[in-house]
Design a protein that fits this description.
Alpha-Beta Plaits; alpha/beta; 629 residues; Beta-Lactamase; Rossmann fold; elongated; 4 domains
Length: 629
C-alpha cells in the first residue's frame, strides 16, 4: 500500500498530513510518498523525521511519478515481508510470552524462555512429542485434533487445556495455532485465560494519552486469532487536523488526552479485563472486546463513545465541537493475520466515513458473507452468458374478461452451477453492480425474441413483453438497433410489447418519451411497468406514448386490504382507462384479488393464480388446458 501526500505549494500542510498518517503507514507496513516543490527540497529532513519514506520534487513527468510509485510499492512489499518475519520471531522472543514454534519436518520445537521456566524444562529445544506429553490425556487428544485441523485446511485454530507449572499448580489456558507451510513451521501461543488481557498484550504505551500503543493492539489481536469471538472497533475523530490548525497542536494534544480519559471507562465497563483501548495514529483508536458479548451491545457502545466525544469539549479557553465515525468488525475463523483483520476494520471505517445514515457501521459475518457472495456472482456473471446459464421463462398474462391467456412476459433465470436457480431480481442486481447490465439486457431481449419466434402454432397468437432498462434509454440508436434485432429473430413486431420500469423513467423522462415513440412507430406496443413503486408521477402518463399500464404486485394485492387501499387502486385504474390505456395487474394470487380487480375495470392479470414462469413447453401445455375445469 502506498499513501501519497501532495505538499506542492503547501509544505506545512503537507508536513502536518504526513505526521497524521505516519503511525497508520507504519502499522500497515506501507510507504508514504510526498510530492514537494523544488524550493522545498532543503526541508526534506523534516518530512523524513515526520514519517515520509519517499519524495518526488516538481516539475516531474507522468512516467517519473509512475516509476516513483513503483519504487514505493516495492518498498512496502519488502517492508511487509520483513514485519511478518519479525512478528514470527516475536512469537517466542517477547519477554513473558508463553509460545513455541516447531519444524514439522524434523519434529523438533523451540519454546520461549517464559514457557521453559513455566515447564521447568532444561532447554528451549524440545521434541513435539515431549511438548504434547505436557498435556493430560484428555487435553492431549484435543491438541492432536487441533493439529490435524490446521494441517487439513491451513486455517488458524485453537483449543483449551490445563497448563501445569514447576510448582505443581495449574491453570486453564487457550493454545492458538498458526501454520506456515512455506517455511515448514507450526506456531503456538498460549493465552492465560485468567490473566489480565492488557498485560498479555505486550507492547508499549502511547506517550501522549497513556493508552496502549499500536504494537500492543496488534499483539492483543494476534493472541486471539483463530480462538474465540472478539470485536475490533476503529474509532476515528473526523477532521481533527483542522483542530490542530485552528487552535494549535497543544490544544489538539489536550483534546486527545481528554478523549482517552472518556472512552477508556466506557470500554472497560463492557469488556473489562478482556478489552483493550489503544491509540494508533493521530486521532484514531483501536478498541478490542473479547468474549460472549452481543453484537448489538458492541454497536451501542460505539454509539455511546461517539455521543460522549461529540459533546462540546472544553480545553483551556476553547469550547470545541467534534464528530466521529466508528467501523466495527467481528473476528472470523479464516482471519489469517493481524493485517487481514485490520484491513477489514479499515474498510468498515472507510464505509462509515462516507455513510449519510449512521456514524457507526458494523460489518457482520452475515454481511461479509453476502458481500463475498455478491463479488463471486459478479465474477461468475461474465462467463454465464458464454456458458448458456441464463434461461428465459414466460409468465402468462390472462384476459380478465374472457379468461384466456393473451400474452406472456419474458423473465430471466440464472441456472448457477453452485447456487441453483437465481431469479431476475438477484440477476439484475449483480449485473448492475458489475457494470454488465447492458450486455445482460441485450442478451435477454435477443434470446427471448428468438425463442418466441420458434413457438408452436398453438402459441402463435400470444403477445410477448420484454423489459427495457434505464441504461437502454441512454444508448444511441437503441430503438433502431432493437427493432433490427427483433426483425432478425423472426418474431413479429406487432406482437411485441416493450416494458420500461417506472424507476427507469424518473431521471430520463425526455429521452424515454422519444425512445418509446420510436418503438411504437416501429410497430411495437409500450407499457410502463411496476407502476406504484416509485413516485408514480402523472407526468409519465401525460408525456409518454403508452398502450398499457402495469400495476405493481404490491399495489395490486392491496386491493384486498383496507378501504383506503381499494380507493388507491381504483384511482390508478380509472386514471389509466380515462387515458385510453389497458391495465395489467401483476402478482395476483387469490380469487378475491381477481374479483375485486375485475370489479374496478382491470383488463389483464398475471401471477400465481394462473401460473408462475414457465418454459416454452410448459406454456404450451398450460394454454392447451386453460382455463382449468
Amino acid at each position: 500500500m502506498v499513501a501519497v501526500v501532495d505538499a506542492r505549494g503547501a509544505f506545512d500542510d503537507g508536513l502536518a498530513a504526513v505526521r497524521s498518517l505516519a503511525d497508520a503507514v507504519e502499522i500497515n507496513a506501507a510507504s508514504l510518498l510526498v510530492l514537494v516543490s523544488r524550493t522545498d527540497v532543503d526541508r526534506l529532513d523534516e518530512l523524513v523525521a515526520a514519517g515520509a519514506t519517499h519524495y518526488l520534487a516538481s516539475p516531474f513527468k507522468e512516467n517519473e511519478l509512475l516509476q516513483t510509485l513503483r519504487f514505493a510499492e516495492r518498498h512496502a512489499v519488502r517492508l511487509a515481508g520483513g514485519l511478518r518475519a519479525i512478528e514470527r520471531r516475536r512469537e517466542i522472543d517477547v519477554e513473558g510470552v508463553l509460545a513455541w514454534q516447531a519444524n514439522f519436518q524434523s519434529g523438533r520445537a523451540t519454546i520461549s524462555e517464559a514457557l521453559r521456566r513455566r515447564l521447568g524444562a532444561a532447554s528451549r529445544d524440545i521434541s513435539m512429542i515431549a511438548l504434547l506429553n505436557q498435556l493430560v490425556d484428555r487435553d492431549r487428544r484435543a491438541g492432536r485434533m487441533a493439529i490435524r485441523r490446521i494441517f487439513g485446511d491451513g486455517k488458524p485454530t485453537a483449543f483449551t487445556h490445563m497448563l501445569a507449572d514447576i510448582g505443581g499448580g495449574e491453570e486453564r489456558v487457550a493454545q492458538h495455532l498458526r501454520l506456515d507451510r512455506t517455511r515448514g513451521l507450526l506456531f503456538g501461543t498460549i493465552e492465560r485465560l485468567d490473566h489480565d488481557s492488557e498485560a498479555m498484550a505486550r507492547g508499549g504505551r502511547d506517550a501522549l494519552t497513556g493508552l496502549r500503543d499500536a504494537a500492543a493492539a496488534r499483539r492483543w489481536i494476534e493472541l486471539r486469532l483463530g480462538g474465540g469471538k472478539f470485536y475490533v472497533l476503529l474509532f476515528h475523530i473526523t477532521r481533527f487536523e483542522m483542530i490542530n490548525t485552528a487552535f494549535g497542536r497543544d490544544t489538539g494534544d489536550a483534546l486527545l488526552q481528554s478523549i482517552a480519559r472518556q472512552i477508556g471507562p466506557l470500554v472497560a465497563e463492557l469488556g473489562g479485563k478482556r478489552s483493550i483501548v489503544a491509540r494508533t495514529a493521530g486521532a484514531e483508536f483501536i478498541i478490542g472486546i473479547e468474549g460472549l458479548v452481543d453484537a448489538d451491545r458492541v454497536v451501542l457502545l460505539a454509539e455511546q463513545l461517539s455521543a460522549q466525544v461529540e459533546r462540546p469539549q472544553l480545553t483551556g479557553a476553547h469550547l470545541i465541537a467534534l464528530s466521529s465515525r466508528v467501523g466495527i468488525i467481528e473476528s472470523r475463523e479464516d482471519d489469517a493475520s493481524v493485517g487481514d483483520l485490520l484491513r477489514r476494520a479499515s474498510a468498515a471505517l472507510a464505509e462509515a466515513k462516507v455513510s449519510d445514515d449512521s456514524r457507526v457501521l458494523m460489518v457482520s459475518q452475515e454481511r461479509h458473507e453476502s458481500a463475498a457472495r455478491d463479488a463471486a456472482l459478479q465474477a461468475d456473471l461474465r462467463g454465464a452468458l458464454d456458458r448458456d446459464e441464463i434461461d428465459i421463462l414466460f409468465q402468462p398474462q390472462v384476459s380478465i374478461a374472457t379468461g384466456k391467456v393473451m400474452g406472456v412476459e419474458a423473465l430471466a433465470r440464472w441456472r448457477h452451477p453452485e447456487h441453483g436457480e437465481l431469479g431476475a431480481t438477484t440477476l439484475f442486481a449483480v449485473a448492475e453492480q458489475s457494470d454488465y447490465l447492458q450486455a445482460l439486457s441485450a442478451h435477454i431481449q435477443q434470446r427471448a425474441t428468438r425463442l418466441a419466434a420458434n413457438w408452436p402454432k398453438s402459441l402463435a397468437n400470444l403477445r410477448m413483453s420484454v423489459n427495457v432498462n434505464a441504461g437502454d434509454i441512454g444508448l444511441k440508436d437503441f430503438a433502431e438497433n432493437f427493432l433490427a434485432m427483433v426483425d432478425q429473430s423472426g418474431f413479429p413486431r406487432q406482437r411485441l410489447t416493450v416494458e420500461i420500469t417506472e424507476s427507469g423513467l424518473i431521471r430520463d423522462l425526455g429521452p424515454a418519451a422519444t425512445l418509446l415513440a420510436d418503438l411504437r412507430a416501429g410497430g411495437c406496443r409500450v407499457a410502463i411497468d411496476d407502476f406504484g413503486t416509485g413516485y408514480s408521477s402523472l407526468a409519465y402518463l401525460k408525456a409518454l406514448p403508452l398502450d398499457y399500464l402495469k400495476i405493481d404486485s404490491k399495489l395490486a394485492q392491496d386491493i384486498a386490504g383496507s378501504t383506503r387501499d381499494r380507493i388507491v387502486v381504483r384511482g390508478v385504474i380509472d386514471m389509466a382507462r380515462a387515458l385510453g390505456l389497458a391495465v395489467i395487474a401483476e402478482g395476483v394470487e387469490t380469487e378475491e384479488q381477481l374479483s375485486l380487480l375485475a370489479r374496478e375495470g382491470c383488463n389483464y392479470y398475471q401471477g400465481f393464480l394462473c401460473s408462475g414462469a414457465l418454459t416454452a413447453s410448459g406454456l404450451e401445455r398450460l394454454v392447451a388446458e386453460w382455463p382449468l375445469t
